Request: fold
Amino acid sequence: MADALTAQQTADAVGVHMFARDRASKAMGMRIVAMSEGAAFLEMKVRDDMLNGFDICHGGFITTLADSAFAFACNSTGDVTVAAGLTVDFLAPARAGDVLTARAFEVVQAGRSGFYDITVTNQRNEQVALVRGRAHRMKGQRVLPGDAGHEGAAR
Amino acid sequence: MADALTAQQTADAVGVHMFARDRASKAMGMRIVAMSEGAAFLEMKVRDDMLNGFDICHGGFITTLADSAFAFACNSTGDVTVAAGLTVDFLAPARAGDVLTARAFEVVQAGRSGFYDITVTNQRNEQVALVRGRAHRMKGQRVLPGDAGHEGAAR
Amino acid sequence: MADALTAQQTADAVGVHMFARDRASKAMGMRIVAMSEGAAFLEMKVRDDMLNGFDICHGGFITTLADSAFAFACNSTGDVTVAAGLTVDFLAPARAGDVLTARAFEVVQAGRSGFYDITVTNQRNEQVALVRGRAHRMKGQRVLPGDAGHEGAAR
Amino acid sequence: MADALTAQQTADAVGVHMFARDRASKAMGMRIVAMSEGAAFLEMKVRDDMLNGFDICHGGFITTLADSAFAFACNSTGDVTVAAGLTVDFLAPARAGDVLTARAFEVVQAGRSGFYDITVTNQRNEQVALVRGRAHRMKGQRVLPGDAGHEGAAR
Reply:
């Protein structure tokens, strides 16, 4: 067996592995800007087909970007983790052509529940949305095939 | 000037007017099932391009459906109203081919803030997500062109 | 062994048992108005020592009343259940002498997570706060001593 | 007229002024540990009369401590600001004798809405609760008597 991956290598490998399979995030035109242990930054350009009836970006898509960043962040350690809940506050509208960046960070882990802060900003660094995510780590499932985890199979 | 619309006629007209302009909800394949004063039901079929890296519907898209139903419900009185916040709890995964229905209802209005409950269920009537929405009614703006509102222009 | 309790008897017995031990709710002057399976109504009079620096009831105490109703509701089936999270929207202030009623209802149960709606109203039936609670049911623990649960010990 | 207060002097004066009138926070045995512009730290010892039926600190009182820190933080600039909403995640129980500290910080201000993060930890620095607060700043009202604000009366 090869040497265990470092935390950064695991985060990067999780990013590549998950993104390749994530049709939703790809269909939205997202891209990963950075991954690290407990954090992920994703970017998305607001397209015309993301606008609602008031000609601003549908809040659901702003949330989708935040939720993707959250998902990459909470799986970055290699343990399969699912989103259990979100609290979203919309701070400012996003418009066609805006480039949004979602930055997700782990705040605290309590048992198998993890809490994340995700901020969404535009290209002028104005805050567009503030999101808190709650994640649930699945027992004994690893994101990467053939990966037993840093602590081995005992999780 | 024509007679004022009834509440139901206003809700239906808002639904038609908003949906025609809502590229986001149309791109997601949503359709309006029903509109009434303070409520809206929307439907969406989970497509392959809505699946995430775990082969289940991206939570952001479930939220987007809920947020659309919320938007139609909170504008149904004809007053322009924007989503200010969402709290989402994901209860069960949705899979490709599932037909999701989001039902949004007004719970209470407090000043210009309105609170809505939105539930998302699948075709087996299983609950997929539970959403609370907070909306902010804009002063003196009407959704329908040429509509002065039931109480006239004085809003 | 005695016959199993009905759902209503269990709810009532849980109310009596928990309230007798709940120094916090008693210190706040709360009383149980009604208990049933999945629901609890509690009442509290706003005292002078519950007022904050703006001479209105501290929002934390409004939340405490809601949280107590939530706790009684989510334990009403006899399974030990703890509050995991709350989302609170404050709708109107409460003043000294107001009598607040919190009504908690189960919305949906998903695995061991339960979701509850709690409303707080005053004596004029005006809504003071809107609360969503998330509860976590503990495995195999019963509230009432010697109670094996309706389905027996197999939980 | 006297010279305008610095931001730190305003925060300190607001702390003294509000706390003197805040019967609720005093009845709970809270004390202010520190105040600064946009932040407040408060401390509370868990008393026996704060315990619920499971012999742990009532979650409502943990929330009350967080809500007090939030109130002091969001009024620290001297503008009267009220709590509009809270999202609370309970991470670990608190027990009799535990000394809890709530630290509230402004995250972002968007128009008259302000968003705050509040963490509650115990004397072993373990996280007990994670709270996000949403505040609403009242127009043209100052906390301190005779205080016109840094920008004068034009707010």
About this structure: The longest strand of chain C covers residues 127-142. Residues 7-139 of chain C form a domain with the Thiol Ester Dehydrase; Chain A fold (CATH 3.10.129.10). Residues 28 and 44 of chain C are 7 Å apart (CA to CA). The helical segments of chain C are 7-21, 23-27, 59-75.
